[in-house]
Specification:
heterodimer; A: 295 residues; mainly alpha; 12 helices; B: 414 residues; alpha/beta; Rossmann fold; 2 domains; five-stranded parallel β-sheet; four-stranded parallel β-sheet; 16% strand
Chain lengths: 295, 414
Amino acid sequence: MTFEQLLQYVASGLTNGSIYALTALGFTLIYNATDIINFAQGEFVMLGGLSAVSLHEAGAPLPVAFAGAVLTVTVVGILFELLAIRPLLRSGVLTQIIVTVGASLAFRTGALMIWGRDARPLPSFSGETPVRLLGATFNRQTIWVFGLTLVIVVALQLFYRRTLTGKAVRACSINPMAARLMGVSYSRVVLLSFAVSAAISAAGGVMITPASFMSYASGSLIGLKGFAAAILGGLGNPLGAVIGGLLLGIIEALSVGLLPGGSSGYKDGVAFLILVLVLFARPQGLMGGRIVDKA
Amino acid sequence: MKHRYLVYLAVALALVAALIGAVGCGGDETTTTTVEPASTETTAPASTETTATGPSGEPVIIGAVVSATGPASPLGEPEKATLLMMEKQVNDAGGILGRPLKVIIEDDQSDPQNAVTAAQKLIQQDKVVAIVGPSISPSALAMKPITNQAKIPQLAMAAANAITDEPPIDWMWRTPPKDALAAAKALSYVSETLKLTKVAVLHDENAFGASGLAEIEKTAPDWGIEIVAKESYKTDETDLTAQLNKIKGANPEVLVVWGTNPGPAVAAKNMKQLGMDIPYVGSHGIANKTFIDLAGDAAEGVVFPAGKLLVPSSIVDPQQKAVVDQFAAAYEAVVGSPPPTFAGHAFDALGLLLSAIDTAQSTDAAAIQTALNETTGFTGPDGVYNYTPTNHDGLSIDDMIVVKIEGGSWVLAE
């Protein structure tokens, strides 16, 4: 493998990795607030992408379609929490997780009925000409995804650490009971987490659609990889989610390069094997600790 | 502790979800496998018979299983419309064997299990003479043991090789060009038109892509082609630059991509991104406008094997042209749009069956079987059918064309 090829594999890995990272971030936000693993997370990504496609086809300029799609999916996330998660608050986390599995199927089938089975495209945010960097070529859209992911991560950190609402969310994730005694509305924190998580995933969906298209079925693979990334990084740690996502993408791409020809089908196997090994050595994930240890 | 337990549970759930997803995808994609061109009308064989007198007596009952709803409805809907249209035409022209034709259409909702139920209902309850359909390969493979055991002739409208390649095939025929024929057409183009020998294959990991790779690997030596690289991807994978980067390293002269949307479109875009300017030969899985919509500029110059109906001007045989024109006009009059490929599969299936019944002058299953096996030169929208007791595919490589994408539309490549 030449150095140039190596760089290209890393570039490919970053492309997929930033999508995994954003989805992992969505998992993390909901997990932190509720202990729920939301298996409909990938579906939020899919709904975001397809909503943007519809809005754009209806004549909305790209930025408007972007905002509209994020808003739409945020509303979906809020309704999902109000209608499916909140009524089960007393049934325990396990029941709620099962509900998210059901919801993911419902979202997928709904999307199939609305948008049909064909994948749909969206124009690139800033043209198709690839960008060359150190001998590797990046899709322009990748740079958008990568850049916006960083912006979202920084914004989230600021929100969690600098605002009162953000601190309330963190308080709830550390000790819901104590937070409630301090006057924090737990149910509002949960609602907020679902809304923000849906919005972030939707934004991710809109950003990747120009590069990789979106179909009703696209959410499941993205959701699965995003979940793996969240575990790898340490479930509950937003920074860990991002690092886990990027790492997972790069491992996958590199394993294509390192495995003998004709075995690219095993790259997911390699990625998951590494995930399992990491969990053996560090059950809390690469950057996990605080949250997982709390009980 | 509680949380760690939850994480394990979640991992287990994720694995289950992954498995379900994989299985689901496989089925889905095979569906699209059938993408081909379509359609026209052979003078229904029955219509030559009686002229003035209307049909009378017990109807000849033929069953049909199509995917009128569900993910494969783009296949099943035009097939259903075609069958209903033909039923009316035949009855208006005096019926079959002087008797009325009755086509009972069942919808498998794109689900093989429903296809099985439908086949049993048609055979046991409706006592059908023969069955046309189904629309998709998984359903065809699921129905095969049933029609075989009941000794009911079945004409499938699906493309998976196994339908007519793997025994028992005594009671199973098909109308679309099978996947192997498309692979052969693609390789012949690489070998004879492009005159290139070093091929890289990028294929979907689903049933369609995997069987495509197997066929290409098996027959490449016959065309003097060497496979220098082969890589795979999942249908919904978002970026294929890693696979293409690996392929690039093997220095192939041409890239063959075997899959259904959206993978091949992602591959076309990623090739541009990596600056790979070798020819892109696709499969018949991209013989649809969706590929052009998705890949945009990257679709330009892409070639793929397809049935002749995709580029109607490629039909030069006067007999086939007459059949296609007549069918297209009749279909458009009823449905309001030109017939897609799938309508042609249905037209050929019912047409072949009626022709066999007419030849046999009987609705006896064994007589129909014999007549179908002796079919020679039956011309329909999909091509010219020659069935034998061991060849139940009918079509030949000459019934396919290689299509090139130019200016966002399809032109003949050869």
